[in-house]
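Issue 218. Parser rejects a valid record. Input:
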Amino acid sequence: MPHDSSSIVAPEAPVRAVPRGRPAFNRTMWREVAFLLTNLFLSVAGFVLTVTALTLGAGLVVTIVGFWVLAGGLFAIRRYGAVERALVRKLLDEDIPEPLPVRATDGKEGAMRRTFAVLSDGLAWRTALYLFIKLPWGILTFTVTLVALVTLWPLLPWITRGLSVVDRALATSLLSPAALTVRVRELEQDRGTVVDSAAADLRRIERDLHDGAQARLVALAMDLGLAKEKLTEDPETAAKMVADAHGEVKLALQELRDLARGIHPAVLTDRGLDAALSSVATRCTVPGGVRVNADLPGGSDRASRPDSAVEGIAYFTVSELLTNISKHAGARTATVDAWRSGEKLMLQVRDDGNGGAVENPGGGLAGLAERIRAVDGVFVVESPVGGPTVVTVELPWRTRTRG
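Output the parser choked on:
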């Protein structure tokens, strides 16, 4: 049985760049020193901005002007947080993502909606708290770092490491966008990927129709028109033309079936993913054939099968991978495994070809990875030069639906 899903790790998971190992006199330490000494001046500016904006806004809040002033102050504080995040990224190597722009929760425009969106923005208030805390902390870190530079030189790496760890924790907890905000950004990016993929599929279908079945049907109509004209004066020729047209009809029907199968194959709808994978495997041209091992509930029992969208993604992923193996891998055999692991649909496609497959931007593997990650899936390629190549895919058994 193929690997359990717990062994698969999503490659896009961020890795925090917190310094590891023994503190030492190195470039990292000097960047920390620069941050700790710069802290005081930025802390004073941030503190003045925060106190002025909140005090002035709170004092005028009894009037409608106060809401505008308070919202403007919070917006400025939020923007100032970008300066702090940039400094933390550059000098402390802590990758804090930038937040999404402030906008009304209902997505509508309007001055009052934007004002209340800023007033209710959690990141703006957390940034205000951060800038308020930073003044006493900035005074402390500036003083301690300066004293260490002058009199406690041998202890400087340990002192700067300890102080910078606190700064990293403050910045990460107060200046990072909320997890829900990050998830919204990911979903928006995924939606763009899905829309682009759908548009590309529509263009492909249009091109296939125009160059294939449509052109054949136009020629067929012309041939039948000529046959009609000859029907009375040359019945034998007309009969031959009708016979030829009958053959063209069969070819046009086959092209339309192939096109429909490329959109959503009937075998997938009627018999499930197991049968559909076996069907696509028979069309792979590797010399030794493709072995399919599927341990999936399916058949006509729709309720026990994966979500239809997930089935479609799984089918076309395997189909694309087998096409790549036929064209590029130089493989003799290939294997497709499919099984259920908890609430996950697992796929693994293996070949004994030349290896060296990578996810190049804009390439076929990258396109597959984008589609799979758009539904919270995982796509992992292991392909050392010389082979074998193993592609492992993890998909949710059921996609989330909006209630």
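Fixed in the parser; the record now loads. Residues 1-18 have pLDDT under 50 and may be disordered.
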